Amino acid sequence: MSGSAPGDEGATPQELLLEGCRRNNVELLQEVIQTVSKQRGTAAGNLAGLINSAVDGIGNHCLHLAAINGSYDALDLLLDQEGVEVDPIDRFEGDTPLHKTVRFVNGLPKADWESAKAIVEMLIEAGADPKLRNKAKLKAMDLVDPANTDLRSLLQRAEFAMMAGNDVVDEDDDDGPTGSASDSE
Fold first, then answer.
1. Digits of tens for pLDDT over the chain (185 positions)?
2. Are the C-beta atoms of residues 62 and 54 closer than 8 Å to each other?
3. Rg for the chain, CA atoms, rounded
4. SS3 for 151?
5. SS3 of 98, please?
6. CB under 8 Å to 104, separation ≥6 — which residues?
7. Contact 71/23 with Cβ under 8 angstroms?
């Protein structure tokens, strides 16, 4: 027989996105992004909608899978797409990608913690909310290995900055005298 039966077309764009995130396969992700952009026009909402709606069988979104697997490059590429939801909630644990990243870091040898912290930093810079709690009522910071003080400190600073509306004075800022104007009498 010539031709193919319905359903024999191969993986869907969503399945390809999920696989690219699992394997940190940036080339596959770029191919899907280019194909979808051509098929659906150039509207960023179409691509973001596809990325945001791609979910595996247990409720992990693209960003969750990239976080679980430490797929830095895949996360970086997806977070660069306009309209991508930074804090999707997974069905199973109610985790955000930030929760999943902390769990990933906890599973690494201590020597690898510093390099994996870059994934947490990237998510925070993209707008991930460190105050969000999962189904167990835990924030990402609550999941940090107690020995990983650098990661705990990073998440605490991010939470404080978010609560302060990013109106936080940098500790290293030494642009002039401190104190009130009334002290100058």
1. 444 344 447 899 999 999 999 999 999 999 999 988 887 654 555 889 999 999 999 999 999 999 999 999 999 999 999 999 999 999 999 999 999 999 999 999 999 999 999 999 999 999 999 999 999 999 999 999 999 999 999 999 999 998 887 554 455 444 444 444 444 44
2. yes
3. 20
4. helix
5. helix
6. 67, 68, 69, 70, 116, 119
7. yes
